[in-house]
């Protein structure tokens, strides 16, 4: 019984090693290397695209923040300008 177990384990290990060696040998061929390079390039292109999307999203978010700051500042200046115009009108009326 023990011998059958070790025989089966040996066969399984042999098959696993044989497959791994065959896969490694296939990767070492020019076609295998081209496939690996193609896969690496696709992965790189995906990473660059993802990075670009993150940058665009960050830029859009920052642009919105800056737009809000400008709108708030314009609102403050508009109130100051309105107050100045009112004071100017009052001064002109008082000077008549």
- The low-confidence parts are none
Number of helices: 2
| Structural class by helix and strand composition | mainly alpha
* Backbone CA Rg: 37 Å
Distance between the termini: 121 Å
**How much of the polypeptide forms β-strand, as a percent range?**
under 5%
- Shape verdict: rod-shaped
Per-chain topology:
Elements lengths: L1 H26 L2 H66 L1
How do you describe this structure in short?
This protein is mainly alpha-helical. The chain has helices at residues 2-27, 30-95. The protein contains two helices and no strands.
What would you say this structure looks like, in words?
- The chain contains two helices and no strands.
- The chain is mainly alpha-helical and 96 residues long.
- The N and C termini lie far apart (121 Å).
């Amino acid at each position: 019984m023990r011998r059958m177990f070790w025989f089966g384990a040996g066969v399984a290990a042999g098959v696993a090693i044989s497959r791994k060696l065959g896969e490694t040998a296939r990767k070492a061929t020019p076609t295998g290397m081209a496939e690996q390079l193609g896969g690496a390039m696709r992965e790189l292109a995906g990473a660059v695209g993802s990075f670009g999307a993150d940058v665009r999203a960050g830029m859009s978010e920052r642009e919105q923040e800056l737009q809000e700051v400008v709108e708030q500042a314009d609102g403050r200046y508009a109130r100051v300008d309105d107050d100045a115009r009112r004071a100017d009108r009052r001064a002109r009326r008082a000077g008549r």
